[in-house]
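Session log. Operator J.P. requested a structure for one protein chain; no other inputs attached. Running the standard single-chain path with token output.
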Amino acid sequence: MLQPNTPAPSFSLPDQDGNIRSLEEFRGKKIVLYFYPKDNTSGCTKQACNFSELFPHFREKGAEIIGISKDSVASHKKFQEKFNLKFTLLADTEKTVIQAYDVWKEKKLYGKTSFGVVRTTYLIDENGIITKAFSNVKAAENPGQMLEEI
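Structure written below.
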């Protein structure tokens, strides 16, 4: 996991509509950048829906929400439409940004070892500096926690 008080790695990835979005276009705003394992799974859906529900409150505080997973643009579009998500989802199918933010880790589940995204959320300030970093967050609680952090 990246540490606070370090520059957030730059990125350019397609969003749920296929438009290329970069970290630089969000300069001047706080960013809640969260990494999640997979669209349409129970934990990821709870996290996304809770972020979407709180989205107006984040906006009031001058913050944007960006979710990143290794799912495709098409998967993100279906996920966004199915749950009426109000924020940006970025597709990192090559895992370049996932690796740059150090969230691709070895995981153990039921005695089986595999690699995957560890649910992690970064708070990035208006100048592109990571101010807070949270690893292994609880999906349902993370959006409320991040709103309090801002």
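Operator note: The chain has a mean pLDDT of 94.
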